[in-house]
Design a protein that fits this description.
DNA polymerase, domain 1; 123 residues; 5 helices
Length: 123
């Protein structure tokens, strides 16, 4: 019988997950198990939800990190443990959008003036 880690790894390989995604998902599930000091297959969806609340409130992790952990847990419960009845109701955190930095006309003219003339380049 394969271990839970091997089952999860095989499921990700079958679905064509990138190697870095596999590493990140396994690390997220490992952190969940370490937090509760139990195997992830014995945890409930409520415990996973409480863990993600802990990540947001107490550890103050970035949105990307929480979303990645949420996706890893959702994959574990749905695809590996086959517990669709576990109702994993953690919405993805909203990533704040920021406006791009726009150069002023003066900054653009200074930038273009500082560029070397391509016709004057020696060959």
């Amino acid at each position: 019988m394969k271990t839970l880690r091997e089952q999860m790894n095989d499921a990700m390989i079958l679905r064509g997950f990138a190697a870095r995604t596999q590493e990140a998902y396994l690390a997220a599930v490992r952190a969940l198990a370490k937090h509760y000091r139990r195997s992830p297959d014995t945890l409930t969806a409520q415990e996973a939800k409480a863990y993600h609340l802990h990540l947001i409130v107490e550890r103050k992790l970035a949105y990307f990190s929480v979303n990645q952990s949420t996706s890893a847990c959702r994959f574990l419960f749905d695809k590996v443990l086959r517990r669709p009845q576990a109702r994993f109701d953690i919405p993805m955190a909203k990533v704040p959008k920021s406006l791009p930095c726009v150069l002023s006309r003066n900054e653009v003219s200074c930038l273009l003036a500082a560029a070397p003339n391509p016709r004057a380049a020696p060959y």
